[in-house]
Amino acid sequence: MGLKPLIVAMTARLHGNKEPSGLFIFAVNVPKFTNKGGAPTSSFDDTQPMLAATITEEPLHVRMALEIIKAYDEALFRHSVRVAYYTCRILEATGAAPEQIRVAQISSLLHDLGKITVPRGVLHKPAALSEHEFTYIKLHPVTGARILQKLEGFAEIWPYVKHHHERWDGKGYPAGLAGENIPFVARVICIADAFEAMTAGRPYKKSMTPAQALDELTANAGSQFDPDLVRVFLHAVSTQLD
Ligand SMILES: [Fe+2]
After folding, report:
1. How far is the centre of ligand 1, averaged over its atoms, from the C-alpha of 8 (Å)?
2. Gap from CA of 112 to ligand 1 centroid (Å)
3. Helices (H) and strands (E) in the chain — how many of each?
4. Ligand 1 center to residue 194 CA distance, Å?
5. For a disulfide at 31, which of 26, 44, 97, 189, Cβ 3.0-4.6 Å?
6. What is the per-residue pLDDT across 179-190, written as a single tens digit (0 to 9) for each?
7. Cα–ligand 1 centroid distance for 104 (angstroms)
């Protein structure tokens, strides 16, 4: 209930009916939102397995990074795909250029690459993390960025990976950047990431409905999240899906 499998060809929409070139096409379950009353009301039933996530046409270095994430942890990969989906929807709604959306898509797919250095027992711990474990987790944006910095082809990507846990009020990590000093795409990924985490739930936390998650985003707009981008996301999800 509340879910429908979609074949998401993100850029087909951006380019009219033209074939998307060099971009991902993936099949993914996303929540079916109903617009009656404004807010989405359906729940994100994560018990439905994602149909598939096939990555095509991307350069080898991008595919390799994704395959490493997938091989390390299937759930992390699914999270990354959903975060990419929401990231691109926000970017679309801002009227971003296709090339910027393409960069954002790759950045969001790889945003948690650094978690491949976090033990899976910590990633999936069915309880709140200890302070020590959380310190470990907090290294992942820098770790991911360092991996990508050493490889060719990710010069535009790694800053977004590095800063996706910054907060609008400057209380995030790793750099404590605030407001518009946080790279734009990193601010978008931060919102998409939070929405996905809330709606998909965690081992120790029940998932929220999309409506509850949107309320949470709204409550934290201007402190954790870029308030303008939260508004864009609210609008984008309340007018989806086809
Ligand atoms: Fe992250």
Report:
1. 23
2. 5
3. 11, 2
4. 9
5. 44
6. 999 999 999 999
7. 15
